[in-house]
Write a structure and sequence with these properties.
The chain is of the alpha+beta class. The chain contains 20 helices and 28 strands. The strands form seven sheets. The chain has a six-stranded antiparallel sheet with strand order 12-11-10-15-14-13, with helices on both faces. It has a six-stranded antiparallel sheet with strand order 17-16-21-20-19-18. Strand 7 and strand 8 form a beta hairpin. Helix 16 runs parallel beside helix 17 and helix 17 runs antiparallel to helix 18. The longest helix has 86 residues. The chain is flat.
Length: 806
Amino acid sequence: MAKAHIGGLFVKERAVRLPVLAGNWAQFTIPERVLRGFVTALIVLFLAVFGGAAAIQLINSRNLALKQQQTNSILIADLVAGRMRAGLGMELEQTKIPRPLTAEDLLRYLVKGALNDGRSYLVADNRNVIGTMLPPIDGLIDSTLTSLSGAKVTPVVYRDHGAMVAVTLPDGRNAYMTLRNLAPYPGVLALIQTREDMLAAWSGQTLKLVTLFVAAFGVLTLVGAAFHWQASRAAEADAMLALATERLDKALDRGRCGLWDWDIARGHVFWSRSMFDILGLKPRDELLSYAEIAERLHPDDKPIDRLIDDLLCSGASGIDHEFRLRHADGHWIWLRARAELAGSPGEATPHLIGITIDVTEQKITDRLNKEAEIRLRDAIETISEAFVLWDSENRLVMCNSKYQQFHGLPESVCQPGMSYDALTAASRKPVIRRRLPVANAERAEGTSFEVQIEDLHWLQINERRTKDGGFVSVGTDITPLKKHEERLTESERELKKTVRDLQRSRIELEEKSRSLAELAEKYSQEKTRAEAASRSKSEFLANMSHELRTPLNAIIGFSEVIRLEMLGPAGSEKYREYANDIHDSGQYLLDVISDILDMSKIEAGRMPRDVHEFDLIEVIADALRIVEPRAKAERVSIIRSLPGRLVVEADKRAIKQVVINLVTNAVKFTLTGGKVTISARDTAEAMTVVIRDTGIGIPEKHLARLGRPFEQVENQLTKTKPGSGLGLAISRSLIELHGGTLKIASRENEGTTVTVILPRLSAREQTGPPAARAGANPLPASARVAQSGKSRRGDRKVWSGTGQTA
């Protein structure tokens, strides 16, 4: 763009830049009237070309639409005629006599979409008389095909004619028709479609294209008119700008300020000559771009374009901003810009217009003052005392954070100029205030006193007058000294009290020492007697059990011989009944004695474990085979819910004995028709076996007693089931011997659930009973149970566990 300098401002002239050879650019001015004529000619040429192209497109699309509709109608006529030949041919084979077709018959043979785009179908007989038509056209029923086609074409030609021929309908409309022979049916099918229906879609497209052309014509006409109007407005704006520039240049000639005129939309900036002088630059007869100014902006200052964005977003009308620009010598110049957004004649986008003032000297002075004030404040802030300075009118000049902290003052109150009374009212009141004596030489200059504030801090405050009539106050925290004095006083009292307590404690310890010595001697004697009694009991039980088992073996054996009549008939039936009773009683007594013997071995600590891997499911199956005869006799169902395999590390005979005891006990206390369910599952930490019955249940108050040796819910007078009360104790002890637990849950008249949790070997070694890990007997003497390498009882019935304790 070419530019001219008018009165110190740069004013644009209406010009274009044209390329010349070698890629260089040459600038020359084109008059606006020539440019307006050129733009008008381009608009007219564009409309003419666009209109001609649209007309050609309409003609071609019309012919294409007619051809496409004719092709679709021929294909549909062939398809419908083929379906009618097939259907009517089969009908003629059956009836031998053709019948007139109705509109319903014709509708049955039409395909999907056959009636679209205004197509009509008619059937004529062998005399070319039209009898059926769908949809009907006025004046065609009972007329002949020759009346449609005219005298130039005979009906014979029409019967197998595949193309569409032009015809005229009775109402004068132009149409196209194609015929198909329906042999063996004596007739012909005709498809008629009017030219108007064929061109319906084309007419809609034509209307849209014409509408688009009219709209484009109107838009381009408005654009041309707007261009001419804008050009005239721009000429007026140039004249106004030249006048304003001349006046402003005179006002800025001798001032230390410059004028800015920033066209925000175009990014062009006008500088007055004084701005070039401030920055030591040579004046230029061109507008500056924002990029040239941004290159000189200090990197720490906010970019001016972002400042403008904030201004536009906030809706404000002006700015007052300070920033730095680089001088031609390299140093920085501080500028203060005051500008407002203003619209320009003929332009929709605003300009930022204002002045900039050189404030470099003022900035240097302010910086020196601030540095001095900062040094003073830093010095006051770093001291450990509370410092405050008042002027001659008792107004606050400055204070440090220690002063605010000691007196509990908020930041909003400690502002310069605040009165002494206001700060005193807002500060914490001292609990104790005590004046200290001051030397005579210092009495006229100030005072000193001690105060204790609400947070129990002690301050020694020294106040001195300044030369301007104010005074300075310095408060020293003497809390550690005061606390040290208190600690010394308290230590003296505590020391005296401690001496008295030590004397009293020594007398009490001497008395307790004598009492403990007597108790220790008594405990030693009782322990010796208890150990002797325990050994005597164990030896007695072991000897008595062996002595009782010897005659019991003979009783059981001989009663078995008599019961089975091995040596001949017993004679009376009563003998066999008595032999059965003797055998059962002897066996029951032998089981009790075996349990007592096992308990005596446990108490003696002679019960080693044979731990190895085995399938728990097989052990459960073996145990159930032993219990099932009794369950069948009691008519109790045993339900299994077990996995295919469950490997466990434990003493196989001990686990089998536990399962036998628990399942037998569940069967024993389940009424006739009830059921016992046994299930097992494997988790990452343990194996779990659950035995659930629907028996008589156990009252909640008796659950804590179960598992103790010889403990039974029923007493000797009321119990209905035989048992010694050792079965459940044996089961619980065997599980605990493996580091597991046995849990019992029961509700009276609803049933009992016994859960056996057997941990894995790794978990058992870590969490098992300490005594077991050390190799000692882990169970209490009252709850130890029998377990040995060879189970003496084998598959004998041991009744214990759920329900009542056997």
